Amino acid sequence: MRASQKDFENAMNQVKLLKKDPGNEVKLKLYALYKQATEGPCNMPKPGMLDFINKAKWDAWNAIGSLPKETARKNYVDLVSSLSPSSESSGRVDKEPGSESVVITSEDGITKIMLNRPAQKNAITIQMYQEILSALEATSKDDNSVITVLTGNGDYYSSGNDLTNFTNLPPGGIEEVAKTGSILLRDFVDCFIDFPKPLIAVVNGPAVGIAVTLLGLFDAVYASDRATFHTPFTQLGQTAEGCSSYTFPKIMGPAKAIEMLIFGKKLTAHEACAQGLVTEVFPDSTFQKEVWARLKAYAKLPPNAMRISKELIRHNEKEKLHAVNAEESTALQGRWLSEECMNAIINFLSRKSKL
Ligand SMILES: CCCCC/C=C/CC(=O)SCCNC(=O)CCNC(=O)[C@H](O)C(C)(C)COP(=O)(O)OP(=O)(O)OC[C@H]1O[C@@H](n2cnc3c(N)ncnc32)[C@H](O)[C@@H]1OP(=O)(O)O
């Protein structure tokens, strides 16, 4: 059966109302069929290799070859209807509760900042960096907030920087991404360095990259025995951040720090605890119960005494930490433009069909 122009237009509207992201592969198929249905075979010059998104779109469209416009229109309508059970097309586009990527809650003097992209292993997007930064700024000034906790929802604490942060190229290209990324990274880490109240990491599962390095700036790190700690910077053509080039050698000694930061050795929770990066490890079965009971008790301690003690312990290091952060952010800006880094990101994204 043919699909009419009206069917095609309805399908286009339905796509906008989908509640669930159909994933990159399907989105590329939809794009390609739409272009074929409206313009015919691919007629655009092939984008450059580093223009990830446009190249993926071009590849998808070009792959359809000379499929007739009429057939592309029908395939588009069929694909959309396969994605749209009747419940999907009710026209409601409300965000489901708890669908935010960072969930911030406050109870019993504890501000909890929870990374909430469990399907992506809590990989941190640009927007999430900004939201965490704003949450830390707000909670540092909130008199009702005594301690602040960072944790993850699902099986991971966080898989670190979302590697697709580097693929959405603005008009200034990859250079602009690297420059703005470096500024954001510096501001983000500065905020952890300056955070005035007790800052606790509740590491509910594996941690990768920046989710690990930042732990050196926390006041306590409680980990499930399922957690692992992995900084595969060299494998990604990148370098240490989160002040770890300074805090890790201080915490665990240069020999162990180098194994992690240069060679990418992954530590178990017990190993990280033995190295001094983790405060205490709990069995996963009782982790949440034990840790939150302890945190509730800590949040009842006199807040000003805790704040002043933290300042006494930390203030001598602050200037040094800001300088290290600036250096690391500048080094990474250069790394993000390197072939080593580009190739590593392309490899990851191709493995995951994100290109
Ligand atoms: C402002 C910029 C600041 C930049 C600061 C710089 C920081 C440096 C770093 O943080 S470096 C660390 C970067 N992270 C990684 O290299 C981890 C990459 N991910 C993995 O290696 C694996 O996904 C895993 C080991 C975390 C989990 O493997 P597993 O096989 O269990 O699961 P999947 O690979 O199938 O993952 C499920 C989906 O989640 C997506 N995903 C996971 N991590 C990331 C990530 N870091 N970036 C983007 N996407 C990620 C993965 O693609 C899967 O998605 P899909 O289901 O749509 O395929």
UniProtKB/TrEMBL annotation:
It is found in: Mitochondrion; Peroxisome matrix. Pfam families: ACBP, ECH_1. One of its GO terms (cellular component) is mitochondrion. The keyword Phosphoprotein applies. InterPro entries: Acyl-CoA-binding_prot_CS, Acyl-CoA-binding_protein, Acyl-CoA-binding_sf, ClpP/crotonase-like_dom_sf, ECH/Chromodomain_protein, Enoyl-CoA_hydra/iso, Enoyl-CoA_hydra_C, FERM/acyl-CoA-bd_prot_sf. Pathway: Lipid metabolism; fatty acid beta-oxidation. GO terms for molecular function: delta(3)-delta(2)-enoyl-CoA isomerase activity; fatty-acyl-CoA binding. This is Enoyl-CoA delta isomerase 2. It comes from Castor canadensis (American beaver). The gene is ECI2.
